[in-house]
Amino acid sequence: MEFFATAARGTERVLAAELAELGLAGVRVRGGGVAFTGGREDGWRACFGSRIAQRIQLEVAAFPAASAEDLYRGVRAVPWEGWLTPKTTLAVSAFIRDCPLTHSGFVALKVKDAVVDRIRGQGTERPTVSREDPDVQIFAHWVRERVTLYLDLAGVPLFKRGWRGPTGEAPLKETLAAALLRLAGWDRQQPLLDPMCGAGTIAIEAALWAANLAPGLFRERFGFERWADFTDDDAERVRALRGELRRSARGQVPRITACDCDPQALAAATANARAAGVRISLRQADVRELRPCEPKPLLVTNPPYGLRLGAAAGEAFQRDLAATFCRLHGWRIGIFTGNPLLPKLIPPRPMLEAALWNGDIECRFLLYDMP
Questions:
Q1: Is residue 107 located within the same domain as residue 205?
Q2: Which of 184, 263, 271, 296 fits a 20 to 30 Å CA distance from 35?
């Protein structure tokens, strides 16, 4: 089987490294994610174990198409009855680029019509569409004159781990936080510090990774468990996989500290850490009061920037932040920011600079070894 793990733009390389560590085969980077090969259980294992992927998709068909009619015929030829029944709900979305049709919504509609007609053509009733909570999610990828069809194994996107409570404006997704930790080269043994933790996402993801707790263990079920071909034997294999992953967890983790000057943010971080079942050190503190200490932790943080906090993230704050970082001699510092001013205020050249996207916002991850 061919699978495709989608990812935030810029995180594909670290996702590929993660999937290879999970023991998956044929791992290769492609635009927007990482492809890999394997059997059904490999797709399940990726859903449970990937901290960086946003979705795990199974490729079910690929064919040339130069028109809406070609699209309809190609989709209808797929044996959808293997995954859908008249009682199954479905949703379809589409991505198009340089193809004969110019509206992704129309493409999704044609795909849905072909799927429904295929099921109804078996002499049964038609399945219904559910945009809120579908049993089966279908993705159509049409670039130039080639269509690829995928089924989503995840269901709810993988960044929704299940432990996060209500958050404030523009929270950092868990999948992106996990990617930042890998980009920073954290070895899961060095102490870690996030001095502007917000809802605690970076620190919590670090604690879960250090404890080898698979992120999928927080999920009640995945999308593939709602497919028509998911049997009682499959359910038993998934239970066995859950047990295997629970037994692989470790008890010892390094000291992980999360600070914030906002008491409401700190309360949210405390509640999230409790829900995730991890122990991190939480403290109310202003990042500008940060001083050198021993042993030196790895600092990874997502400072507030203009689109998040408006005037509070003005030039004066960015200058204070740069001054704070510059006095942390000998520290390794990873900064994820959408503010172009901050990198200009830190004298050393970063040892790593990566363009990443936080939703629709283009950001930079900068990694420094402070002299």
A1: no
A2: 184
Is the Cβ–Cβ distance between 333 and 367 less than 8 Å?
yes
Q: Where are the alpha helices (DSSP H) in 124-183?
A: 174-183
263 and 115 together in one domain:
no
Rounded Cα gap, residues 365 and 129, in angstroms: 40
pLDDT the model gives residue 123? 66
The two three-digit tokens of residue 218, written as one number: 């927080």
192-194, strands of its sheet edge to edge: 281-284, 256-260, 192-194, 298-301, 332-337, 361-369, 352-358
Three-state DSSP class for 177?
Answer: helix
Token pair 């008491």 in the structure block, residue: 263
Residue 46: pLDDT band with limits 50, 70, 90 = very high
186 vs 183: CA distance, rounded Å: 8
Residue 307 lies in a domain: yes
Kindly state whether residue 22 falls inside one of the protein's structural domains: yes
| Residue at 265 is within a domain | yes
Kindly tell me if the per-residue pLDDT of 122 is higher than 90. no
| CA dist., res. 44 & res. 216, Å (int) | 10
d(CA 112, CA 100): 18
Is position 300 within any domain?
A: yes
Residues 198 and 141 in one domain: no
Report the number of distinct structural domains present in the chain: 2
Which residues constitute the domain of residue 16? 2-152
